[in-house]
């Protein structure tokens, strides 16, 4: 019996040694961040000219709506207004259009992101909405502008969690449930391209 136990211990030691001397240790997979950058040259002079002071104004309201189970915005659901969020405005340039196309290829699960150069980022305006989602960009020139804002909001749901069963004198069964509530965080990117055509135009829009 003692000989058997001793042999078992020796075998375990030998197996442990074999594991430490594995022929090949498979490395963990690593995923490097993929940066998508526009190849179009950014025209600083054109961007600066597009944002020069003018007499036109953009007035808008930013909002979203809850989504259905199929991922579409419910058309008759109440609006969720963008309360105190930042709205960005960029002049539409070939560089920006390429960037927006690259952003469609982005995939955060694969660490694949689209980037804008620091120089291009400098040429934009921003506005802050009020509690009703209203925002204004004054003193603009005629031209095309890309406008976007990120609206974070939370929805609440509930489900019945089974907690146990009870049985009557005649074998009848009653199941008991507690209502549990949960929150789901959402982030909706609101964006569009608008065009000011007249020098004194007041363009009213919906950002949704």
Description:
With 208 residues, the chain is of the alpha+beta class. It has a domain at 33-153 and 187-207: Sandwich (Immunoglobulin-like), CATH 2.60.40. Helices cover 20% and strands 43% of the residues. The protein has 4 helices and 10 strands, in the order αβαβββαβαβββββ. The strands form 3 sheets. Strands 2, 3, 7 and 10 form a 4-stranded mixed sheet that branches. A 4-stranded antiparallel sheet has the order 6-4-8-9, with no helix packed on it. The longest helix has 19 residues, at 2-20. The chain is flat. The model has no long low-confidence stretch (mean pLDDT 89).
Order of helices and strands: HEHEEEHEHEEEEE
- CATH superfamily of one domain, by name, is Carboxypeptidase-like, regulatory domain
Class derived from helix and strand content:
alpha+beta
| Coarse shape | flat
In the CATH classification, which architecture of one domain applies? Sandwich
Number of helices: 4
End-to-end separation: 79 Å
- Work out the strand percent: 35-45%
The biggest sheet amounts to: 4 strands, mixed
The radius of gyration over CA amounts to 30 Å
Share in helix: 10-25%
Summed up:
With 208 residues, the protein is an alpha+beta fold.
Question: How is the secondary structure organized here?
Answer:
Layout: H1 2-20, E1 34-36, H2 44-50, E2 56-64, E3 80-81, E4 86-91, H3 94-103, E5 112-114, H4 118-122, E6 125-128, E7 134-140, E8 143-167, E9 173-196, E10 202-207
Parallel strand pairs: 1-5, 2-10
Antiparallel strand pairs: 2-3, 2-7, 4-6, 4-8, 8-9
């Amino acid at each position: 019996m003692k000989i058997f136990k001793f042999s078992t211990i020796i075998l375990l030691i030998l197996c442990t040694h074999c594991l430490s001397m594995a022929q090949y240790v498979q490395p963990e997979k690593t995923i490097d961040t993929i940066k998508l950058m526009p190849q179009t040259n950014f025209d600083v002079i054109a961007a600066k000219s597009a944002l020069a002071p003018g007499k036109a104004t953009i007035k808008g309201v930013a909002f979203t709506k809850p989504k259905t189970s199929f991922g579409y915005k419910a058309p008759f659901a109440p609006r969720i207004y963008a309360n105190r969020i930042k709205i960005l405005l960029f002049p539409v340039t070939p560089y920006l259009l390429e960037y927006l196309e690259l952003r469609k290829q982005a995939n955060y699960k694969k660490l694949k992101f689209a980037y804008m150069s620091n120089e291009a980022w400098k040429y934009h305006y921003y506005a802050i909405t009020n509690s009703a989602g209203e925002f204004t960009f004054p003193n603009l020139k005629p031209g095309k502008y890309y406008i976007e804002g990120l609206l974070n909001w939370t929805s609440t749901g509930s489900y019945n969690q089974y907690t146990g069963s009870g049985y009557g004198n005649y074998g009848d069964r009653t199941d008991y449930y507690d209502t549990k509530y949960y929150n789901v965080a959402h982030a909706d990117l609101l964006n569009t391209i608008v065009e000011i055509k007249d020098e004194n135009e007041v363009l009213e829009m919906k950002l949704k």
